[in-house]
Amino acid sequence: MSTPHPWWQGGVLYQIYPRSFADSNGDGVGDLTGITERLEYLESLGIAGIWLNPVTVSPNRDWGYDVADYCDVDPDLGTLSDLDRLVAEAGARGIRVLLDLVPNHSSDQHAWFVEARSSPTSPHRDWYVWADPRADGSPPNNWRSAFGGPAWTLDGQTGQYYLHNFLPEQPDLNWWNEEVRNAFDEILRFWFERGIAGFRIDVAHGIVKDRELRDNPPAVEADDEHTRRVGQRPVYNMNRPEVHDVLRRWRQLAERFEPPRVLVGETWVLELDRWAAFYGNGSDELHLAFNFPFAFSPLEAEPLRRAVEDTESVIPEAAWPVWTLSNHDIRRFPTRLCGEEEPQVRCALLALLSLRGTPVLYYGDELGMPDVPIPADRARDPVGRDPCRTPMQWTAEPGAGFTEPGVEPWLPLGDASRCNVEAQRGRDDSILAFTQHLIALRRELPDLRVGSYASLPAPDDVWAWRRGGRVAVTVNLGGEQRSIASGPGVIAAATHTARQGEAVESTLVLGPWEGALVLMGYR
Ligand code: NOJ
Which of 40, 93, 158, 455 to pair with 30, CA 20 to 30 A apart? Predict the structure, then answer.
């Protein structure tokens, strides 16, 4: 008998950056009502759930990731009742809503921190990580912020340093303090009771710090680019084994609800065996752990196949992968991986939507929307991530259907005349139509939705795999035509739309940058 698959395994998730999706009130900033007004579009994509980047109250030093109130909506984005309405109306269309939880740090404007910094003996003092200066007045240890500079800022009033793994306006919470754990239990419950289907958990691997605040070791040549840039390995300021206790606690809490709520972790861990540990035994920690080795692979057959095979080999038996190629931090895949070439974009979408695991699309991925160059005087993000956070391109009109014509959006619009929803909705052979078709196929075919993954033999530049018993997916990620041995079947999805429905006998011939999904045995 087959095990039933929960909704978040069978469906596709869609990430929305709320400030940039749809502006309902003409202030140049996207909002929750804007999302509600676009539910028809989201339903037409066939997605099962949306993850919203933070919608909670924030002074926006790090655009929502500096939270000043975990249980209310930021006024720029709307109100709690706007969110309730979005959840209800999305639910009526079969779309669940996930929020972003930011437990590693709050804003320095949060009442907890304002109180904590007021005195060394204040009740919330120990909710954050404080330490005395070294004898020479320098920070307590060598930890560096992920955004550059020391991870410690001296609080002049009380003479101690506080820890911030990101901006100084984002003080790290002290996860050794049981009151902090209890406060977050309440926050999770608050949202789950409001019908939120789950959370994407920010910095899920990093919230617990070394209790002794030991120095991090220096980076070495073999480390990844980010580690080398920071200059040290984040061994003690993140990645502590005790984080797993917190994840287990949240998993238990999430499963007390019906249906169980889902936890998706931002597990920025590049060694796959350590990454797999975030699934615990497969059913007692995160439901889904973001896979950065896959996201960072070049669009080449060998590295992608390796990333997927390695993932499949280390992930616990009962656990479920999650795949993504773009997000609000790592840039849009059409620019980052595809040189903004449409055939490459289609191959990437075919792969993303045909693996075993939950695909997560970032708003605009379904159109092949590229990054947008941002002039220096329009930059909003402290570390330069604006190009992948620009407004959704709905139409070619002034304002791109995102905001009213004549209104300056909070970030500049891209070239909506080249890429927009309206134009692509009108064409059967658009990238949007291709994405919708792939999502529809996933819904239709159990093999594609939940079947096992196995790589198939393939010539150079070609990545081919089987899903379940009857689906074979092949992408030619190179500039030469390739012939691939195949059993008989029919092409059910093709990057060249005209090939859909074509019969395959014993050989599948793919041109440069072409891919096909073949239903085996369907003659
Ligand atoms: C990861 C988030 O995705 C990113 O946008 C943010 O700046 C950092 N965590 C800090 O919260």
Answer: 93
